[in-house]
Task: inverse folding
């Protein structure tokens, strides 16, 4: 801590600011970026020869981008503040279950948007409660399995690019594939004659009302909780990945964006509608050939062959049954495989200001929010995970080939 040069007293380097003021500042910086772009890209400047204007405009754009990043960083807070709240939860669960449980925290200094941190407590609580009640064995059972008496739950945060991974892992018995599949058959979630991949089976635990518990207790058996995890993470533009090994434990990974204020996007157009696709989700963009398209005999879906992979095509305007083969295909990578989006034009890449969808806009297909563009136009920010989920729900027997070998859930 530095000293005040006048009275030689310690000077506090920190300034406490209300979170809503930072949010207002974020909105103002976003509006500033739009105003700057509106001036520097004004159609009236196209035929004018202004010496040094292009360089000055570029520098102004860079300064606005830097200001946006700096203001976004002001709203980042250590994830440890919500992690440490889970320590007391584990102590209470240890008493309630009669199990000896310890929690290990890692990556507490990783920073994330306060708007995200404020919504993390409930998902983490449900995941940890699920690990303590269903995952970890009783002390005597752990000893028989060659484990220590004390069960271990690890809560970890890792930053990966512009995403943060929140990992909840236990060293328990792992998910019971047969029990989950049997319950899914009884509820009609998975057809009896279908042999689903593990990813689809693990996905069932996030269904509302789904439980494999034989009795209802104060901790489990009602099937309430895991659906809250899924809904909350989806509302944060995130996704969930689950990995489990019998006898070794289960790991649930929440993958969420570092900030919700801005989104690096590929801007595309189909007819008069503009869309913003998260740039991290874009796999490739190409012009299709007529001979490359096929129609699935099982689902009726129009698909396109790309490097030996059948990729479903989606037309956001006219629906799946109306496809113009002269359109551009934007292939996005999702947790359930690839999806081809039919577009008329690729406008370019830019960082957009994100706003929530409200009113009638909330029902827009695949919409994750409103994206304010530098041109002053408004685009729909797409949730590619929601799009592929809807597409597969309409065609459960689709013959799409999924190259993704990891166990992932939306």
Result:
């Amino acid at each position: 801590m530095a000293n005040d040069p006048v009275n030689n007293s310690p000077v506090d380097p920190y300034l406490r600011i209300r979170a809503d003021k930072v949010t207002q500042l974020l909105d103002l910086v976003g509006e500033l970026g739009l105003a700057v772009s509106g001036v520097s890209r004004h159609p009236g400047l196209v035929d004018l020869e202004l010496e040094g204007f292009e360089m000055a405009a570029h520098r102004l754009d860079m300064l606005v981008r830097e200001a946006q990043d700096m203001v976004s960083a002001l709203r980042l807070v250590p994830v440890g503040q919500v992690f440490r709240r889970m320590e007391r939860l584990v102590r209470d669960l240890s008493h309630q279950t009669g199990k000896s449980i310890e929690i290990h925290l890692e990556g507490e200094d990783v920073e994330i948007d306060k708007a995200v941190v404020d919504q993390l407590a409930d998902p983490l609580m449900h995941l940890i409660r699920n690990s303590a009640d269903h995952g970890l064995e009783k002390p005597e059972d752990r000893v028989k399995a060659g484990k220590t008496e004390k069960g271990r739950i690890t809560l970890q945060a890792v930053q990966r690019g512009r995403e943060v991974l929140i990992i909840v892992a236990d060293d328990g018995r792992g998910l019971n594939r047969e029990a989950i599949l049997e319950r899914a058959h009884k509820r009609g979630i998975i057809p009896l004659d279908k042999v689903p991949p593990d990813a689809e089976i693990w996905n069932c635990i996030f269904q509302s009302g789904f439980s494999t518990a034989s009795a209802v207790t104060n901790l489990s058996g009602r099937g309430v909780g895991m659906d809250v995890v899924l809904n909350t993470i989806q509302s944060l533009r995130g996704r969930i990945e689950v990995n489990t090994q019998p006898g070794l434990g289960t790991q649930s990974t929440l993958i969420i964006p570092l900030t919700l204020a801005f989104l690096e996007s590929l801007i595309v157009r189909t007819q008069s509608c503009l869309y913003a696709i998260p740039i991290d989700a874009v796999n490739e963009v190409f012009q299709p050939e007529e001979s490359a398209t096929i129609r699935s005999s099982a689902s009726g879906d129009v698909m396109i062959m790309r490097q030996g992979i059948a990729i479903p095509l989606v037309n956001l305007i006219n629906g799946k049954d109306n496809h113009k083969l002269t359109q551009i295909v934007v292939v996005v990578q999702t947790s359930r495989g690839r999806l081809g989006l039919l577009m008329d034009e690729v406008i370019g890449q830019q960082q957009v200001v994100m706003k929530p969808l409200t009113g009638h806009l909330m029902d827009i297909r695949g919409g994750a929010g409103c994206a304010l563009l530098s041109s002053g136009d408004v685009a729909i920010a797409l949730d590619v995970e929601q799009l592929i989920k809807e597409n597969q729900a309409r065609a459960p027997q689709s013959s799409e080939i999924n190259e993704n070998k990891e166990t992932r859930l939306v």
Remarks:
- Residues 19-40 form the longest helix (22 residues).
- Residues 89 and 125 are 8 Å apart (CA to CA).
